[in-house]
Amino acid sequence: MAGLPGAARARSASPGSPPALDGSFLLSPLGGLMGAQAVLGLLVWSLIAATTYHLHAAYGWVMFVSLFFWILTLLFFVTYLLQLHQKFYMVPWPLLLMIYNAVATVLYLTAFVTCAAAVQPMSWRQWDYNRRAAASFFACVTMITYGVSTFFSFRAWKGLGSNAATSQVTDHA
């Protein structure tokens, strides 16, 4: 569980204690990436929502992917920020986060390609063109952040970065 903030305290949290903010999560790579994903995802779906996306089926997919993963990213972010993942210790959080990030990466790849392919430079509405082109760019950047999060989540799931001695000590502390 290396790489996830509060991993050493995961088994010592009592189920009845109130949630507390985990400041170290905000400074961790996963916390920073989740914050970036929330901001970038917000940009993608708000740029698409500001266009006439309902006239083009391709943008409906982009809107669905960006909004769906924006909401789920916010839920994961709040869960880790408030240390709620320690209350539900029976859930394999590192594995769940790795699968979530991998699925988000693949679906954001499809949304990025769909959005980029549907942008028409000779659109009769220039403001729609600019917003759709910007949404394509931000969808690509968001996809990259989910890909990097997948890497860090995989490392946390596998426990890379720690050795057998430290994992034995933190598991029984």
From TrEMBL:
Q: Where in the cell is it found?
A: Apical cell membrane; Myelin membrane
Tell me what topology the record assigns in the membrane: Multi-pass membrane protein
Gene Ontology MF, one: structural constituent of myelin sheath
Top-rank taxon: Eukaryota
Parts of the chain that traverse the membrane: 25-48, 60-83, 95-121, 133-154
Q: Does the keyword Lipid metabolism apply?
A: no
Q: What is its main location?
A: membrane
- What is any one of the record's Gene Ontology cellular component terms? apical plasma membrane
GO annotations under biological process? myelination
Give a single Pfam family match.
Answer: MARVEL
Kindly give the InterPro entries that the UniProt entry links to this protein: MAL (IPR013295), Marvel (IPR008253), MARVEL-CKLF_proteins (IPR050578)
Q: Which UniProt keywords apply?
A: Cell membrane, Membrane, Transmembrane, Transmembrane helix
| Residue ranges occupied by any MARVEL domain in the UniProt entry | 25-158
* Family under the similarity heading: Belongs to the MAL family.
Complex formation: Forms oligomers.
This chain belongs to the protein called Plasmolipin
Q: Which organism is it from?
A: Promerops cafer
